[in-house]
Design goal:
The complex is a heterodimer of chains A (314) and B (243). Chain A is mainly alpha-helical and 314 residues long. Chain A contains 15 helices and no strands. Chain B is an alpha/beta fold and 243 residues long. Chain B has a single domain, classed as Rossmann fold (3-Layer(aba) Sandwich). The longest helix of chain B is centred in the C-terminal third of the chain and has 16 residues. Classes of the chains: A mainly alpha (314), B alpha/beta (243). At the A-B interface, helix 8, helix 9 and helix 10 of A face helix 2, helix 3 and helix 4 of B. Adenosine-5'-triphosphate binds next to strand 2 and helix 1 of chain B. Magnesium ion binds next to helix 1 of chain B.
Chain lengths: 314, 243
């Protein structure tokens, strides 16, 4: 589970190369879909760094992403703050949000923790509608938010670079002893304490890192979309898409959530003509469940066994 | 000179139940003390209080003369005391070496990120508790009970402890495994480790301890050399069921 090997780097280089030539290979429409997959992958990595590792299942990630998105949107649109100032502030605010989500983790675990974080999402959904709708746009949200760049190709390169930068740095971070310590919490938190490590510090770090990534993702996302709709953001389907992407790809890895995000995004797009409504989420829920029952370690494990069969290794 | 471990007037109540009742004893530097008593006597609860997993109701616990009563478990471990569990608690998806690595890690997050694992030391610890080369990359699911106990000890050693608390190290082991662990404890004793050992297996315990503390219903009923404690009437009655 640890150690950096040559084929890891080879895979990274291949991944970067494919992402680089992608605009030459696919249509603009497909490129737009991949942009969404890139953002979903960022959110799934953010979720996985926390929940996939430590086992503290967050149902509150839209809360974090929302803080990043709203902060940057409000600052740029209502106060004319330049993007390069607004976005770092947005990330900082999201990390404060991360501390808020962390607090219940001091006392509760498991499904109780997950439910409390779900309450955070519901709470911010209500708040943005009630408190200062002149700033947040209330129920209708906001549009006409400044975008960073124009056109499918440049937006694609922006989101792809962001994903690669985040994925690679998280991968390096999780390859250190810290990654092992965080995974250890997910396996047996008491034993981590019994090994002399402060689980409080480790968990706080995981929440902050997760929020950092969620904040970056949220801020870039809103300046890509140019609009924000609270009902779509603080939505249980959005939340489950993030979680399912991480789980079916392969939790506690970095490449897993990326694979999962691409798989899900394209599955949803594929289903769109047949099932335009929310039923699509039911279908993908079933697909995810079946896959998960067949191989709880996700697509990445399936691909691994497939590869080993091909090459004859064990 | 202060003792590595000193417990004074320790009391622990669980509601109406007195699990530790005004218990006092100490362990001297480099000594090995056996803590014995019938099922439910409160041995594990004493360990839990020493490690700060349960807070005592009253009384003091000192480590090298320092009151550790309000320290967290990780803080106590860094001060040099560590325990194994009656039921082994390994990290299930990690290899033997990775399990040991968690025990070895610095508690500073910055150091976790910036320092590489010390593979030589991990392997040295693994070998010292008797793991063969082929076992090092196995996960706990592939290990025998004896190996799991060795792994518990290895992770405890990895924390750099100088006072080791062993809870039922011989439970569920084969005769060969018992001999192996006993040899390991003897070796660590000669290297200067201080021990407090809980065991139901008195025969295995006898050669490993300098003295015994016997408790029943949380209270100390006898203390002294192995022979003295075994000869004590109330020990024989409560513990061995013979008069
Ligand atoms: N967390 C707890 N809450 C309530 N009672 C407890 C708790 N832990 C232990 N006890 C009780 O305290 C008493 C001492 O338990 P303990 O596990 O310390 O005994 P022990 O000597 O280790 O027994 P064994 O030989 O079976 O391991 C028992 O009566 C037990 O039921
Ligand atoms: Mg016990």
């Amino acid at each position: 589970m640890t150690g950096i090997r040559w084929y890891h780097l080879a895979l990274w280089i291949a991944f970067v190369a494919i992402m680089f030539v992608m605009p030459q290979l696919v249509s603009k429409g497909t490129l737009r879909i991949i942009i969404m997959a890139n953002f979903l992958a960022i959110f799934a990595i953010s979720w996985d760094v926390l929940s996939g590792r430590t086992g503290y299942i967050s149902f509150g990630h839209p809360f974090l992403i929302g803080i990043g998105a709203y902060t940057s949107a409000i600052l740029t649109k209502r106060f004319d703050v330049p993007l390069e100032v607004a976005m770092p502030i947005a990330v900082l605010m999201t990390m404060i949000g991360g501390i808020i989500v962390f607090l219940p983790a001091l006392r509760i675990k498991g499904s109780y923790f997950a439910l409390v974080t779900l309450a955070f999402m519901e709470l911010i959904y209500q708040l943005v509608q009630v408190i200062r709708p002149d700033l947040t746009g209330g129920t209708r949200g906001m549009s006409g938010i400044k975008t960073i760049t124009r056109g499918a190709v440049s937006n694609y390169y922006l989101s792809a670079s962001l994903l690669i930068a985040i994925a690679f740095s998280m991968w390096l971070l999780m390859k250190t002893q810290l990654g092992i310590a965080l995974s250890a919490i997910g396996m047996n938190e008491e034993s981590v304490r019994g090994s002399g490590l402060s689980t409080t510090k480790l968990k706080l770090f995981a929440f902050l890192t997760s929020a950092f990534v969620a904040g970056i993702g949220g801020a870039f996302y809103v300046h890509y979309l140019g609009s924000i709709a609270p009902r779509a953001l603080f939505d249980i389907n959005f939340l489950f898409t993030i979680i399912v992407a991480a789980l079916i790809g392969g939790a506690s890895t970095i490449i897993g959530p990326i694979i999962g995000a691409f798989f899900l995004t394209f599955l949803l797009e594929f289903l769109r003509p047949y099932l335009p409504g929310a039923e699509r989420y039911f279908i993908y829920g079933m697909v995810a469940l079946l896959l998960y029952m067949y191989q709880p370690k996700g697509l990445i494990a399936l691909m691994h066994t497939g590869w080993n069969k091909l090459t004859g290794a064990r | 000179m202060s003792h590595p471990l000193e417990i004074t007037n320790l009391v622990k109540r669980f509601g109406g139940l007195v699990a530790t009742n005004d218990l006092s004893f100490h362990v001297e530097q480099g000594q090995s003390v056996g803590l014995i008593g019938p099922n439910g006597a409160g041995k594990t609860t004493v360990f839990a209080q020493i490690m700060g997993e349960h807070r005592q109701t009253s009384g003091t616990i000192k480590l090298y003369g320092k009151d550790i009563g309000n320290k967290t478990t990780p803080e106590r471990i860094r001060l040099g005391v560590s325990r194994t569990y009656q039921v082994p608690r390994p990290f299930s998806d990690m290899t033997v070496l990775e399990n040991i690595r968690v025990g070895q890690m610095s508690s500073s997050i910055w150091k976790m990120i910036t320092t590489r694992p010390n593979h030589e030391r991990e392997e040295e610890i693994a070998h010292s508790v008797g793991f063969a080369e082929a076992d090092l990359h196995k996960t706990p699911g592939e290990l025998s009970m004896g190996d799991l106990r060795k792994l518990e000890m290895a992770r405890t050693i990895a924390t750099g402890t100088s006072v080791m608390l062993l809870d039922e190290v011989f439970a569920g082991l084969t005769v060969a495994e018992i001999a192996q662990i006993a040899t390991l404890i003897q070796k660590m004793r000669s290297d200067g480790m201080t021990f407090l050992i809980v065991s139901h297996d008195l025969k295995a315990l006898e050669p490993l301890v300098d003295s015994l503390v016997a408790i029943n219903y949380g209270s100390k009923i006898a203390e002294g050399s192995f022979a003295e404690v075994m000869g004590n009437a109330s020990v024989r009655e409560s513990y061995l069921g013979v008069v």
